[in-house]
Write a structure and sequence with these properties.
With 323 residues, the chain is α+β, with helices and mostly antiparallel strands. The protein has 3 domains: 2-103, Rossmann fold, CATH 3.40.50.20; 111-129 and 197-322, 2-Layer Sandwich (D-amino Acid Aminotransferase, Chain A, domain 1), CATH 3.30.470; 133-195, ATP-grasp fold, A domain (Dna Ligase, domain 1). 31% of the residues lie in helices and 30% in strands. It has helices at residues 15-28, 90-98, 107-114, 116-123, 144-151, 177-185, 230-234, 248-264, 298-305, 310-322; strands spanning 2-9, 34-41, 46-49, 55-59, 64-67, 70-72, 76-79, 129-130, 133-137, 155-159, 169-171, 190-195, 200-209, 212-215, 219-223, 238-241, 270-278, 281-288. The two termini are 15 Å apart.
């Protein structure tokens, strides 16, 4: 029986969603195959939480836990932390140092994909198209006229390193820019301002399934709000249509691009890339390496459409990490 540590929580605004994802993994895993442990990772504490919600501190020297005098070590870590420190490479590097396999990509890939600017600039030479963008670091002088000249209006102001659409604003007038920039700086000290891409938004899951890099059925996002924001993602303010209402040719094209990105970056585990298709050309927005795993989340929806159950999806991730 393998001991599986499911890490969840994290240090960012996304911790609530991560706890839901982690609990879905915990409830879904085959209990005859694995002993699963819920591990909460927060700034103030790393603890194992048992079935009665009692907490036992994690020994960070070897990532073990002692319960009633018995020391428990883990064979594999299932990473369900969205945002820092689970999606930006910190936990990946820590587990690599300890020699504990984990289900996500390696630390370099995590750090790179978590940084939208750097990810897109690495993929650009491979012919992957992106929005026109303008970068700001905290403390930079803000020239709103210069920004508008480069990216046009409307545009999107985003924190460079944050997920779940926290801190993102759609800006329609130059006067709104400084306010949107302040909102984004609450999440990160680096900002990316992107041109508005008017097209069809799709989300493409790529996973290693049983040793083959597999593109899952694509989801089309139709937001009731101005864009696919937090409410649209988690509070039902969007339609998510799987498979997407795009041609077979376009399905193949955007799938190939997402797969190429996965291969170029030497990814492992789950990935979910967001694209907007404008005039027959997919433009990449970002790649998530710890995508939501709640029952409503996109990767589970896409896996279901491919005939892969949640249990299969999670077992596959663990077995690949172990091998």
């Amino acid at each position: 029986m393998k001991n599986i540590a499911i890490i969840m929580g994290g240090y960012s605004s996304e911790y609530k969603i991560s706890l839901i994802s982690g609990n879905v993994v915990y409830q879904t895993l085959d209990k005859t195959k694995y002993s699963a442990y819920r591990i909460h990772i927060f700034k103030e504490k790393w603890v194992y939480v048992d079935a009665n919600d009692a907490e036992f501190p994690i020994d960070r020297n070897d990532f073990s836990v002692t319960v009633n005098g018995t020391k428990i070590s883990f064979d594999v870590v299932f990473n369900a932390i969205h945002g820092t420190p689970g999606e930006d490479g910190l936990m990946q590097a820590y587990f690599e140092l300890l020699g504990i396999p984990q289900t996500a990509c390696d630390y370099y890939q995590a750090a790179l994909t978590f940084n939208k600017r750097d990810l897109l600039s690495v993929l650009k030479p491979y012919g992957i198209k992106t929005a026109t963008s303008y970068y700001l670091n905290k403390g930079d002088v803000i020239h709103t006229d210069e920004i508008v000249k480069k990216v046009g209006l409307p545009c999107f102001v985003k924190p460079n390193k944050a997920g779940s659409s926290f801190g993102i604003s759609k800006v329609k007038t130059e006067a709104e820019l400084p306010i949107a920039i302040e909102v984004a700086y609450k999440e990160d000290n680096e900002i990316i301002i992107e041109s508005f891409l008017d097209g069809t938004e799709v989300s493409v899951g790529v996973i290693n399934y049983k040793g083959n890099i597999t593109v899952l059925p694509i989801t089309e996002i139709v937001s009731e709000n101005d864009f696919f924001d937090y409410e649209a993602k988690y509070e039902g303010k969007s339609q998510e249509i799987t498979p997407a209402r795009i041609s077979d040719e376009m399905t193949q094209k955007v799938g190939d691009i997402a797969k190429r990105a996965y291969e170029v970056l030497k990814m492992k585990g789950f990935s979910r890339s967001e694209f907007i298709i404008v005039d027959g050309e997919p433009h990449m927005l970002e790649m998530n390496t710890i995508p939501g795993l709640t029952t409503e989340s996109l990767i589970p929806q896409q896996a279901r459409a491919a005939g892969i159950s949640l249990e299969d999806l999670f077992t596959n991730a663990i077995e690949l990490a172990l091998n």
